[in-house]
Amino acid sequence: MTRTVGQSRDGDGGGVVDVEGVLGWARALPGVIVETVEEGSDAPPAAWGDSFITYDPDGNAEPGRWQPFATVVTSDYPGFDTASRLDRPGVFRVNVSAGRQLFAELLGYPPAEARAADVDHTAADVWLPHPVYAAQGWVCVVCPGPATAGRLRVLLEQACTRAAARYRER
């Protein structure tokens, strides 16, 4: 697993964003660790290439023992999460723990009312309830672009702030 912190590849926040652009925004946030699962690791092959974004200002949390506040996934998880059809070339999904209030603000309904069957999770550049974790207040966007990139950057900052508050409460 590749663990990086403090490196930034920053765009304008309002155009088409690739995986490295999203990870660059995350790396620029204070106290954030980005871990990317490497091919050949002990993780399931479906997770190879996926990135987990967590708040760990001390940099001493054991890998796998933290809860990410955002993830960037690049492939389907057969039998678990295939709704976004991430098997298509160049397609990835950013998942963010938005919480109930921001979830409702973005989607127009609370997490408890999210119905995966009512959503086209393959749609790009639109805010969607997470296909598995919507009830926990997670939102996602497939291939962020002009309609979502600016808000995505802000949402990552807000999720980091919430994660930092939880960290301080421990």
Shape: globular
Number of domains: 1
Report the average pLDDT across residues.
Answer: 88
Number of strands: 7
Q: Would you list the SSEs in sequence order as H and E?
A: EHEEEEHEEH
Describe the strand arrangement of the main beta sheet, using strand numbers.
Answer: 1-2-3-4-5-7-6
Rounded Rg: 15 Å
Quaternary structure of the protein = single chain
The main sheet comes to: 7 strands, antiparallel
Please state roughly what percent of the residues sit in beta strands, choosing from under 5%, 5-15%, 15-25%, 25-35%, 35-45% or over 45%.
15-25%
Which class of secondary structure composition applies to the elements? alpha+beta
First-last Cα distance: 26 Å
| Total of helices | 3
Instruction: State the share of residues found in helices, binned by percent.
Output: 10-25%
- What are the segments in which pLDDT stays under 50 over at least 5 consecutive residues? 1-13
